[in-house]
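A student in our group prepared the protein record below, which I am reviewing. What it holds is a sequence and that sequence's fold in C-alpha cell form. My question to you is simply how this chain folds and whether the C-alpha cells agree. Do not assume that whoever made the record got everything right. I have pasted the whole thing underneath without changing anything:
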Amino acid sequence: MLDSARVTWALTRAAVRGAAQYRLNFVILALMGIAYQGSGFAFIAVVLSRYPSIGGWTFPQIAVLYALRLLAHAVYLVPLYMLNELDSLVREGTFDRFLVRPLNPLLQVLTRRFSVNSLGDTVTAVGILCYASSIADLRWTPMTVLYAAAAVLGGALIEGGLAIAISSMAFRFVEVWPARYLADHILLNFGSYPLSVFGAVAQWVMTWIVPVAFVAWVPAAVILDSTDGLGVSGTVAWLAPLVGAIWFCLGYQVWRFQLRSYESTGN
C-alpha cells in the first residue's frame, strides 16, 4: 500500500510537470476553466437580478449552493479527470499495458496526464465561495468549516463514484462517453439550483436514486441553517458527507466487477 502511494504520487508529480512544460497552453487552459465556470455563475446572477428568489432561495443562498457544488466538482476533477479517456484507452488496446504493471490499473489511468482545466475550476470555485460567504453573511465557526470541508469532499466522492462506475462500462461496451456526458449534465443542471424548483418527483429521484441533493443542496442548507423542505431529516442532512464515501465505494466495486469482463480489443 505504501509503495503504491509513493508510485502514484511520483506519477502525479510527473504529470503536473509535463503539463507545466507548455506554459502558454497551461495558462490558456486554466483561464478557459475560469471563464467556463464563471459564465455559469454569471447566468445565475443575471436571472436572480430579475427575480427575488428561486424555489424559495435568494441569490446569496444560491451563490453558496453553487460554490459548494463547483468546489466539489473541482475536487473530483483534479484527480479523476483522466477517466474521460478510458474509452479511447480500451478501444486502442492501450489499457492492456496497465494490466501487466505492478500498480492498480485505475491509478495508472488517473496519473497518465494532468488536466489544467481543473485548476481553473478550482480557482473559480474558491473565488465564488469567498464572494458567496460575504453576501450571505455566513459566520464560519470551526464546526461549520469542518462540515463544509467534509461536504465538499463528500460531493466530490459522489461525482467520482458515478464517474468510475459509468467509465468502467467501457470494459464491456468500449464507448460509454454519452452516459458519462449525461451524468455530468444532470449534476450540473440539477445540482446548481435548489431541487425544490423541479417538483416533488424530481426532488425525490435526485435525493434517493441519484444523490445529486447530497452534493451541494443539502450541505448548503445545513450551512445556511435552512433545512426546511429538503425531504430529509436534520440528522440525515448533517450526515450528508457520508453519502459520498458510500457512493464512491459502490462505484469502485462496480469498477472491479466490470474489470473482470475486460477483453482486449486488440490493435
Observations:
- The chain is about 70% helix and 0% strand.
- The CA atoms of residues 51 and 58 lie 9 Å apart.
- The mean pLDDT is 86.
- The longest helix spans residues 23-50.
